[in-house]
Design a protein that fits this description.
Helices cover 4% and strands 66% of the residues. It is mainly β.
Length: 267
């Protein structure tokens, strides 16, 4: 079922639209860029215990500088304690560059999955949660630089009998400095009740998004029902000072060897 999510766990997907952005303008004399994407979630107060649990955490980075320096870091953690039950995960990606020609990319993802929550006829399923999303970008010299940060947090509740999504809650944000296209969007089904604490700045060479979401989910069921809950987050950043567009496209679409790509997995 997990493979049928409408937004698969594929962090490279977030990099594809960036290809056109990374081909901008001529080289500045000296460029400094920064991008950061962080998210976390804590799920607790479950009314039932899942039959089984699963976690996923994955991170990858790429850094190349022909004239300057660039650092890219990413990490992710996930925990689902079945006996209590409660779940936590976090994911971040940072990149910093300095010089005339460089590109740094960092991606991370984390997920917690509770399978087969059994809900008896004429009873309800409920839980509480807190989610955080923070994005930040900074550049010195537009338009010859680009700093991009993206983040997504999603909750999906599946009916195990049909494998259909019956409830959802998503937070999506993106910063593109210095280009248009910044946004922060929250979508939810009616059974999620959310308190939002948001701030953002989409102007100038330093931009940010900061959001805290305190929520609860509750749904009544008229028949015996088995449910699967998936909470997943993805974070992605890119910093760049002018680099040939063919080089960037080569990386994004998988043309570089594994020597250049450092990948860590944990679960």
């Amino acid at each position: 079922m997990f493979q049928k999510l409408p937004n698969p766990l594929n962090l490279i997907l977030g990099s594809i639209p960036v290809v056109t952005t990374l081909t901008v303008a001529s080289s500045p004399s000296l460029a400094a860029t920064f991008a950061s994407s962080y998210s976390e979630a804590f799920l607790y107060g479950f009314s039932q215990t899942p039959l089984s649990v699963e976690t996923l955490a994955d991170a990858e980075t790429f850094a190349f500088a022909s004239n300057g320096s660039v650092d890219a870091i990413a990490d992710a953690d996930a925990l689902f304690e079945q006996s209590i039950p409660l779940a936590f995960n976090s994911s971040f990606a940072d990149a910093f560059g300095l010089g005339k020609e460089y590109v740094g990319i960092a991606n991370s993802e984390a997920a917690v999955i509770g399978r087969n929550f059994f809900i008896q006829k004429d009873s309800s399923f409920s839980f509480d949660f807190v989610s955080v999303l923070d994005l930040e970008t900074s550049i010195d010299n537009p338009p010859g630089e680009a700093a991009i940060a993206e983040g997504n947090i999603s909750f999906f509740l599946f009916d195990d009998a049909t494998e259909n999504i019956i409830d959802y809650f998503t937070i999506s944000g993106k910063l593109k400095t210095a280009n248009e296209g910044d946004f922060l969007k929250v979508e939810q089904s009616s059974n999620f009740l959310i308190q939002e604490f948001e701030s953002q700045d989409f102007e100038g060479n330093q931009e940010y998004i900061s959001g805290i979401y305190i929520g609860e989910f509750s749904r009544d069921f008229s028949e015996d029902t088995s449910l699967t809950l998936v909470e997943v987050k993805t974070n992605s950043v890119i910093v760049k000072a002018p680099e040939p567009s063919s080089f960037v496209a080569l990386f994004v679409f998988g043309g570089l060897t594994g020597v250049a790509l450092r990948k860590r997995k944990q679960s």
